[in-house]
Design goal:
The protein has 301 residues and is an alpha/beta fold. The protein is built from 11 helices and 8 strands. The radius of gyration is 18 Å and the shape is globular.
Length: 301
């Protein structure tokens, strides 16, 4: 079944894609999502709605509805950390009913890195199994037990990748499995090491992955050297070279470091956009909730 989403159509046309991420916020009125949407402005192909990646917030499905109401297209992020396969399928069906047409399937950070480290995780299935299950729902119209889905269900399915995991051969194997399971687009972790990312992208081209799925390179403006060090030391998907941290430190004051972090991000976008095989840019928001307009402008230029 053809997926009628702006993101799916943009991928099919071969156009350059720019997406960005927002956090729905810990409120019941959607004001955080609405404020983030206003800051982003126009021009983005789709907006990721995070699923409790760092702090507890409104559900990604409800946040995606807020994005729809604003006139933009959401990418609903759903993690397997908090749901078994029953809940995952139920959420996908509910999301489709609400008009959501894109889903990013991921495992999610371990709960010890969340706002509730004492929480129990689920991880009934991993992200690749989730992608395959969602693909079967969309392309074959069946649930995991073989039951037929009533009416129409179509969803563009995406995955995430960490270009800095070693060795590259196993990294490619893992990504290949996600693509074979049905992922049509891949958003990467934030890129700070251009050289290593380029090697990873070339490997993806050689393995034929870029011909099967659209790869969007992640970017994130850093506020200061302390933030860079904290991210690098806490999360495995942040590979931040010493040279970047030193550059931030040399900037001086807090305000100057933030300005330098923005400049580094804009420079990174410029270098990424010249890379063969890359289909777009995905702008992460980290824990900030919203994305800098300057970063959006650089990605869209």
């Amino acid at each position: 079944m053809k997926i009628d989403s702006k993101l799916a159509n943009t991928i099919a046309k071969g156009d350059f894609i720019v997406t960005a991420e927002i956090l729905p916020g810990a409120g019941g009125d959607g004001s955080a999502a609405e404020a983030a949407m206003k800051a982003l402005g126009k021009g983005l192909v789709a907006i990721n709605v995070a699923d409790n990646c760092h702090n507890i917030g409104m559900s990604s499905i409800a946040g995606s509805v807020a994005v729809l109401k604003s006139g933009a297209e959401p990418i609903c992020q759903i993690v397997t950390r908090d749901r078994n396969r029953i809940a995952l399928q139920s959420d996908l069906l509910g999301a489709a009913y609400l008009g959501i047409k894109n889903v990013l399937c991921l495992s999610g950070y371990h709960q010890t890195l969340s706002a509730c480290p004492e929480s129990a995780n689920v991880y009934d299935i991993d992200s690749t199994q989730f992608i395959e299950m969602a693909t079967n729902m969309s392309e074959k119209g069946v649930l995991a037990d073989g039951s037929k889905i009533e009416g129409q269900f179509s969803m563009l399915i995406g995955a995430v990748a960490n270009p800095f995991q070693k060795p590259v051969e196993l990294n490619m194997l893992r990504m290949q499995k996600k693509v074979e399971a049905g992922a049509k687009f891949i958003q990467t972790s934030a890129v700070f090491d251009i050289e290593t990312f380029g090697q990873w992208l070339n490997a993806a081209i050689s393995d034929g992955i870029t011909a099967k799925a659209a790869i969007l390179a992640g970017v994130l403006p850093l506020d200061c050297a302390a933030e860079a060090e904290r991210l690098r030391n806490t999360y495995t998907d942040y590979s931040i070279p010493d040279s970047v941290i030193e550059r931030l430190k040399k900037a001086g004051s807090e305000a100057a470091q933030k300005k330098e972090g923005l400049a580094i991000c804009v420079e990174t976008i410029g270098k990424l956009k010249k890379m063969k095989g890359l289909r777009g840019i995905h702008i992460h928001c980290g824990c900030k909730g919203k994305v800098s307009p300057e970063v959006v402008a650089a990605a869209l230029s």
